[in-house]
What does this fold into?
Amino acid sequence: MTRKTFEEFPIASVFLGRHGRACPGHPCLGSGSKDVDARVKPAHDGGNAASRRDVLRASGAIFASGVLPGTGSFTQHAHAQAVTVEPAAITPALVQAAGKEGKLAFYTAMDLPVAEKFGKAFEARYPGISVRVERSGAERVFQRIGQEMESRIHAVDVVNSADAAHFIVWKRNGWLDSYLPEEVARHYPAAFYDPDGLWVTTRVWLSSLGYNTNLVRPEDAPKSFADLLDAKWTGRMVKAHPAYSGTIMTATFQIVRELGWGYLEKLAKQKVLQVQSSTDPPKKLALGERAVMADGNDYNLIQLKEAGQAVEVVYPAEGTPLVAGPSAIFKSAPNPNAARLFQNWLHSLEAQQLLVDFARQHSAHPQVREKPGAHKLNDIKTWKDDPAGVEKASEEIKTRYAQLFKV
It folds into this structure.
């Protein structure tokens, strides 16, 4: 298995800003900033590309099903839906055809260790087929694919993104392959896959709080967002940035919706250490650089705790923001059979159990088994995701956030 990060292999020096204007040297992008939201139009559409707002209105209708928020049963029932494509099983013929291709490229926003774990497990399961992991933030994944498609560079086989709106754009552009794994059609709740077989939700995670157990006693640890406003946490907290991280943009939108801007105005006065990715706050806690995590993600904290690090997850009493990440195959995949085999395997019980056991994220597959003592998603109070709402408020969020936190 080989791996690359997009930052190591730039493919263009001109990027599109939020409003589609060219940004030589990509100053709009910064260090993987959420600023790069322009949806790249397909070369054949005459420039009539769907806007991010239109896309997210559509994705909001798909994902705002009541299943994701965890207020009901997360995976109890399959909620079968009418599909337009015949579900496909892993057959000897598919494995043989994939073996002849011998490789595939996996573009992903997953943490690199998680993506590599999947790649190695697939290679062990199907010897002779190598997985090349191309990892970056979700917006850079989207941008790179758009640039490659415009340049008629067909390199991506399978993609996983942390931004569900990407798949609506790619579907409208006609770029995605129609392929529905049989196991998905049989077991997954309908909200977690496209009826045309164009994407499947691979993983679900939460943006939680957390603390370093060497620096904070459990009885003193914050139990809610409100607790973070206590003066005792001044200068002792770390949080990620909504202009960089899609997870944090989603979390910030939900925090504002539920708690109001007044909460963030007060939090900004707490001298919070500002980092970029949602994966950064857990690392800062583990290193002891800060005592408390004001946002980030729960799965990295769980991994660190299981590795013996002095960290603990806190799901705030008010509710916890939730994010989902789908995967899809491209029609132009240079290795279509290997791509279909990987997409099928990635959503099998074997791979989804790996997602739960190693990545410590949540699966839509109802047959996965949580580790003993693990928090079940249904037992956590989560807030409803609203992609269309995020789009409408994103510019205000970035502007006001920068003003409040001086970053």
Summary: Residues 211 and 312 are 5 Å apart (CA to CA). The domain at 208-320 is CATH 3.40.190.10 (D-Maltodextrin-Binding Protein; domain 2). The chain has two domains: 2-204+325-373, 208-320.
